[in-house]
Design goal:
Elements: H1 10-29, H2 34-54, H3 63-75, H4 80-99, H5 126-134, H6 141-156, H7 160-164, E1 171-172, E2 177-181, E3 187-191, H8 194-218, H9 222-225, H10 243-254, H11 265-278, H12 283-290, H13 295-298, H14 300-304, H15 306-316
Antiparallel strand pairs: 1-2, 2-3
Length: 332
């Protein structure tokens, strides 16, 4: 990645003067630090050097020139993030050119960079998920709660905020479905699966017994304590679980295995989508269960399954092997 320097032509002088004035205004109006001003200055002078070399004066700057400049940045090895930073600096200069009537129209109005590549989420293998669940001590009420939460998060692809705000009436243990209230208060119905349902029933039974013991000691009624609108997952103090509480619980169990220490609650949602697609699930169905309004958000998981598909192809396709050709008779 290389940088440019301004020449000594009259064009460079005009660009120099505009940039100096622009940076001076930015320092006063926005109170930018010296480091920020230096970064802006470097980006703008690099842009001005391109314009000088191309014979572009401030008053003749147009959409075509900006497009050519961005293409050159890409050719010079600038990543999309760096291109966006350069473009943001130039946007500020263009606004000043418009205010000063040097330009009549904004040449960057319809300018679009290619979408920023989203980092692929890190996921666990199916064996890793089993190992994580096996680390939980299920002999205590707390362990049974954490086990049920992990199973629900993985089996239903729930966001952490959706998981910790679940209430009893949203669970249908007879049919094995959970009604999830997602972003924008949109409802979706997601199947729980056998493992999650068993863990949830075990937890609810233990919770009911604990509530009964506590209430009987005080001479009250369990029905008054556990109502349909009660939160599904509660702390030892009887309060609803929080995002931070679940994060702490998950990290506590993951700490038992050094290979799992990096995980976060959202990892289980990533695993849900990835493992479904690896198993052949329809992308639209996964989108609906995740609660994504745009299928392009769901499509990121298709990239994660490519390695799995390559492995399957190498394993089962008769001509995928890189070994020696078969000497078997073609008529066999």
């Amino acid at each position: 990645m290389t940088t440019r320097t301004l020449g000594t032509t009259s064009e460079s002088s005009s660009w120099d003067a505009l940039i100096d004035r622009h940076l001076g205004r930015q320092a006063v109006e926005r109170g930018l630090s010296s480091n920020s001003l230096e970064a802006y200055s470097a980006d703008l002078r690099d842009f001005a050097a391109f314009c000088v070399e191309a014979g572009i004066e401030p008053a003749t700057l147009d959409h075509r020139a900006l497009t050519a400049w961005l293409e050159e940045l890409a050719d010079r090895g600038f990543k999309v993030t760096s291109q966006r930073r350069h473009l943001a600096a130039v946007h500020g200069l263009i606004r000043e050119l418009l205010d000063d009537k040097i330009l009549e129209h904004d040449p960057a109005e319809d300018l679009k960079l290619r979408p920023h590549p989203r980092p692929l989420p890190r996921t666990l293998s199916r064996k890793d998920v089993d190992r994580l669940i096996d680390t939980i001590d299920k002999s205590t009420l707390r362990g049974q709660r954490d086990h049920a939460m992990l199973e629900m998060a993985y089996a239903c692809g729930l966001r952490v905020s959706e998981l910790v705000t679940l209430r009893l009436y949203q669970i249908d243990t007879d049919e094995g479905f959970v009604t999830v209230i997602g972003k924008g208060n949109k409802e979706r119905v997601v199947p729980m699966g056998g493992a999650a349902l068993r863990a949830l029933k075990t937890y609810l039974a233990a919770r009911h017994e604990a509530a009964r013991a506590g209430v009987e000691a005080k001479g009250g009624s369990v029905a008054e304590t556990i109502k349909p609108n009660s939160f599904l997952f509660i702390s030892r103090l009887g309060r609803p679980m929080t995002r931070q509480g679940f994060f702490k619980a998950l990290k506590g169990w993951a700490a038992n295995d050094p290979a799992l220490e990096w995980i976060s609650p959202h990892t289980l949602r990533h695993c849900f989508a990835t493992h479904l697609l690896e198993g052949g699930a329809d992308l639209r169905a996964v989108q609906e269960m995740l609660g994504h309004s745009d299928i392009s958000t769901t499509q990121i998981y298709t990239h994660l399954t490519q390695a799995h598909l390559r492995k399957v192809h190498r394993t089962y396709h008769p001509r995928a092997s890189r070994g020696r050709p078969s000497t078997r008779n073609i008529e066999d």
